[in-house]
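Recap slide: Phospholipid/glycerol acyltransferase, sequence and predicted structure.
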Amino acid sequence: MLDNHTPKELHNTTIVFDVEGGLLRSSSLFPYFMLVAFEGGGVLRGLVLFLCYPLVCSLRKELGLKIMVFICFFGIKKDNFRIGRSVLPKLFLEDIGLEGFEVVMRCGRKVGLSELPSVMVEGFLKDYLGVDCVIGRDLKVVFGYFVGLMDDVTTTRSKSSLINDVFGERKVDCHLIGFGCSNKNLDHQLFSHCKEIYLVSKAEKKRWRALPRDKYPKPLIFHDGRIAFKPTFLGTLVMIIWVPFGFWLCLLRMIIALSFPYNMSIPVLSFIGMGGRVYDHSVDKNNVKKNKKDPIKGTGKGTLYVCNHRTLLDPIYISMAIMKPLTAVTYSLSRISEVVSPLILETYHLSRNKEKDSKMMEMLLSQGDLVVCPEGTTCREPYLLRFSPLFAEVSNDIVPIALDAKVCMFYGTTASGFKFLDPVFFLLNPVGFYDVKILQKLESVNICKQSRIEIANQVQKQIAEALGFQCTNLTRKDKYMILAGNEGVV
């Protein structure tokens, strides 16, 4: 497709493509609306959408779409709606067909047309695919709240306004190419300006491959939301059936973790779905064993375990991996989690005051072993955020630990939701899994020769290599500005 055009011609060409027909592999819009309903409106709204979907399928496509929009958006405050930029991009990227993506990306200027509301697709198309102009459906707003109604395709914008948005100061008669699906009506007025229109059949789309992560124009580092799978209708049904059983299983897992010693709780938790693997790459394993019995004896100071941050349960899994109690320090902890955490693990909240935090960590190290997550916040994708160098200023006895957590139904982290529910959602999964890799202890000779920032970067790189992750210079502030529109102050 487009083989009859030279690269130079395509560079000066504008492609007008149908997002649902020419870019996405799936023809069902239900998963996207379920994420909007559940993440933006709550469990009850998601349940209403699920119950109404059989009715939606029996109606005309346009009417069914309007019903789903009404259920998902009615009463949602416009200024608080960030699902289109924080939650939906992950699902959209995973649904892109490689073949359709290659056609779209070959052209210099890209215009995306969608039957979905603009607030659902604009962030994904502009932020992650570099689309120049997105034309979707406008939602009606009253007193700052969506009322669940959207404009018709033909009345969304006037022809002159539409042409001005797409072309700007460019000439309207520039070369335009249209791209869409043959089983979908391309009745948008922009397609009437196209000199060529390429169509892909439904049978061809079924053979499309998923877009590999390494071909994303912009890497997906941050995303929010609780649902960790594509919420198709059947997948959502399984989730609804599971949750009542999962709630009691979550309570059982908590009781076992709190009541049983490690040598008993670990096999029992593994049997009921909370498993893990431990890889010990430390040099002196005999020393580790001695430290398990008496971490203070000999040195007068405990070991500082430095790990990347996946969930609030990181310190607990590390404690289980090395089979000894630890004290944890964290940069962010909700009020409720701060009250509950001592029941599971002794936890202290860092104040972000360098001198005060250094003294507290030194005091805690004098009492025993300590674990810290210098990223300051969690990251779900295979990336590491910038490490704070504070840990390198309080101890020379540093052991890096690489962590990776896998879930199948719910994420145990959130940027915009209730953070005190993070452990609950993780334990609510049918299966949750942790990889814990104990890496080589930093050599004291090298620590003395390096600056604290260099040590922090070294530990970050060491953990990233162990996990196959990539290092970034992004911080907690960057994450929360992208996902929640604030600086992440708890």
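The longest helix spans residues 233-259.
The longest strand covers residues 398-407.
(End of recap.)
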